[in-house]
Please model this.
Amino acid sequence: NSDYLKKAEAVAQHHDAVSGTSKQHVADDYAERLYIGRTQCKSLIGSVLGNLMEKNSSVPAPTPEFCDYLNVSVCPITENSPEFTVTAYNPLARAVTTIVRIPVNFNYAVTGPSGKPVTSQLQDVSMGTKEVRRSHGNASKELIFPITVPQLGFSNYVLKVLQKGEAKTSILPKVYKPQS
Amino acid sequence: DEVIENQFLSLTFDGSTGLLKSMTDKRTKSSIAVSQSFHWYESSTGTFLFSQASGAYIFRPTHPTPKPLFDGTSVGMTVIKGPVVTEVRQQFQPWLSQVIRLYPNKEFAEFEWTVGPIPYKDGIGREIITRFDTDLKTNSTFYTDANGRQMLKRILNHRADWVYVNSDPTSGNYYPINSRAYIKDDTKQLTVLTDRSLGGSSLKDGSLEIMVQRRTQHDDSRGVGEPLNETGQFGDGIIVRGKHSVLFTSVATAAAAHRTLGEEIFMAPSLSFSKWQPDWA
Model:
């Protein structure tokens, strides 16, 4: 089934999918085909990443899961887990440093690929985001931190919930609400 | 006035309205006055002389001047300043908000807009744009990409390869924006990179507008047979969120900046998650 996405993409080359001029039920069908193909691809990519990670570890690596709705701060794993690993894969042929935004409900210590702590920023999810996601997701906060990923490779960042008294690497931002 | 800045950019916001007021390139110390806000075109349902309605195929506004979505008082600005990101949250309408972000060591400003559900109960089609109004002297010229590759020069009310007939002053000047568009004068350039294919134009000097979402209530009689009105899972319309990455640079450094950034947006790292602690050794 690993070529389903290829076929779904091919179907979506029809002119009404490219231009957005299909009837709504046809657009829904295009979306469903792409979703099925994407789900299979994610499973395949997850297996590959899991195998690659296992080579570097004495601990068996599970298959990583993807979160489609990170843009609205929804990710069941990060919202509810005291410990988890973020794996970033970089498809570019050069190293990239970027910022990631993870939906959480607690404060976490972030450890980078070299084992060193990474500075992060913990802030409230905006009201707009809460409205957008409607009934999905329960994260009240976002943890924001920089990641660096090598060319055509991956980096693991480990997040562990902070216990009382533990040194914080995350910094709470200052919030200003100017009076109009 | 409120200022947010990083090593490359400084953005000044009007303290009373909360709107963006100016951008400064800190390397060249050059500035532009820039106001960014949202507007909407009312979709035409056709006129006595020409029955063409705005719909899935056709963009035809009733009036060439869009209506503002900023009420003229305040966008209810909240500023959050931290070590990883500085952001300004703006609320234009109950269904329209935006977050403007600056990251350390990044040349661009990120404008994340959230639009929808677009009101529809009054029976009026709405086509929402974001617009950057600057003091750049652009001489009726702007640039859009051809599928993320060559940047093509566009001139208002003009085509290089056929006689231009001005059938609609607004949509007749709209072009596809697949990855980026820019306006510039002799020394300064404002580039907007999109995260999806959109349409846009520069209808007056120094201005760059990009349509972010449309909800029409009439079929345009071009074959689709229904209005462009996606009602979504909850039946009241969809909510759309997207990002524009905005560069303000010298003309000389703009191409290197937007080519590099465009690549990073198009092939961004993919994130996956596991409940697992790897062995560092």
About this structure: The longest strand of chain B covers residues 30-42. DSSP finds one helix and 19 strands in chain B.
